[in-house]
């Protein structure tokens, strides 16, 4: 696992924003659409990209449960997922689901953004955008 590099000109702004607990996505000014994964310029029109802050609302597209260590960079089980950000419906964000049981997950369920520290086996922990099922709060 390579540590996220906040100095990388293409992906650095994503990881810097994550360290500040903000979810951003590269966005083409000319096409007015998300460009994901980040690139130096829009692959459709060659336009300039900027970073747009997203709300953090998303829907669950797909997931799996990893119960054995498959990624040698991390220990333990986890739930990798593809989510669709509400603000960028044409994109798919690879993430992890947290604070939930696999049995409660269903396609197209609403998700809420949570940030959490990921601890690789080697290297320093880093902040990453994670998601959890959206639950309405009842009471105070």
From TrEMBL:
This is DNA-binding protein. It holds the Pfam family OB_ChsH2_C. InterPro entries: ChsH2_C (IPR002878), ChsH2_Znr (IPR022002), NA-bd_OB-fold (IPR012340), Thioester_dehydratase-like (IPR052513). Residues 17-47 form the ChsH2 rubredoxin-like zinc ribbon domain. Signal peptide: none annotated. Residues 51-115 form the ChsH2 C-terminal OB-fold domain.
């Amino acid at each position: 696992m390579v540590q996220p590099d906040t100095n990388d000109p293409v992906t650095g702004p994503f990881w810097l924003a994550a360290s500040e607990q903000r979810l951003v996505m590269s966005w083409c000014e000319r096409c007015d659409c998300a460009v994901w994964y980040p690139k130096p310029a829009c692959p459709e029109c060659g336009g300039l990209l900027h970073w747009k802050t997203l709300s953090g609302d998303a829907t669950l597209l797909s997931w799996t449960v990893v119960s054995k260590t498959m990624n040698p960079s991390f220990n333990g089980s986890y739930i990798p997922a593809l989510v669709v950000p509400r603000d960028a419906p044409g994109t798919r964000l690879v993430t992890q689901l947290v604070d939930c049981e696999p049995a409660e997950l269903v396609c197209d369920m609403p998700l809420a953004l949570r940030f959490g520290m990921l601890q690789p086996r080697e290297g320093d922990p880093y902040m990453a955008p994670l998601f959890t099922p959206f639950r309405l709060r009842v009471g105070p």
